[in-house]
Predict the structure.
Amino acid sequence: MATTALEHELKEMIIETLELEDVTPDDIDPEEPLFVEGLGLDSIDALELGLALQKRYGITLESEAESSRQHFANLKSLASLVESRRQK
Amino acid sequence: MLRRRLNLLGRAVCDMLAAIDPDAESVILHASRHGDGERTLEMLYGLDEGEPLSPARFGLSVHNATVGVYSIASGNRRSQQAIAASGGEWAALVAEARGYLADHHSSLVVIFSDQPVPERFAAYAPESFSAAVALRLGVEPATTARCLTETPMAFDGPTLQPLDIIDWLMGWRESVACPMSQRGWQFAGLPS
């Protein structure tokens, strides 16, 4: 399945924001988990990513854990979140 | 994945810890006079500009950040201490180590690292260089070990930095001394 322009933009944002070394956009599978398994991000990365979404797209995430878990499940769900809630 | 969170000196510290404590089961004492001043200062500049704090940067601005990352990466759950002693780091490391050794630990790892303070604060601190040194200290004599002796020593020279300890370990100076604690250290029974 082809990666959308927004997904590619998010991949680059993740790599840059989280200072991922030796990871290219092609290494991030849009359907693989971002956290623990898959890309292997951790809770500090989640906070850092939340801040990046706020800065770049004006999205403020609710503190409710379950919805955040769904939004951050993989790149596809993150792209859906940005598409539906972006302010800029 | 955790490596990316460390600066060059933090990576050097973790590399040395992995080499000197491969089973990740030693108590670790880490001393640094200034820690990562650059990261803290960048954070303060950001706050001054009204920017939100970076969680990762904030988490790593604490003095025990490097050994904390090492602990997570290696699975070492023994005691760890991060020490800053205003120039008396080596004396503080030895004092802490003696406490652990007296408390039934047969050996432990001490590590001393530092880096230059940010340019903005350079006028307030002695010139320092990026360097790190790690030693295993223990109570049992070993054929490959050297016997460390500590004696009171009147001394009003500069404070000790990691490079001084490296020079001493390499045999380029006979002893090291701390002007704050007025103590000196040398090796007894140097191997031939």
Remarks:
- Chain A touches chain B through 14 residues (CB under 8 Å).
- The mean pLDDT of chain A is 90.
- Residues 43-57 of chain A form the longest helix (15 residues).
- The domain at 5-85 of chain A is CATH 1.10.1200.10 (Non-ribosomal Peptide Synthetase Peptidyl Carrier Protein; Chain A).
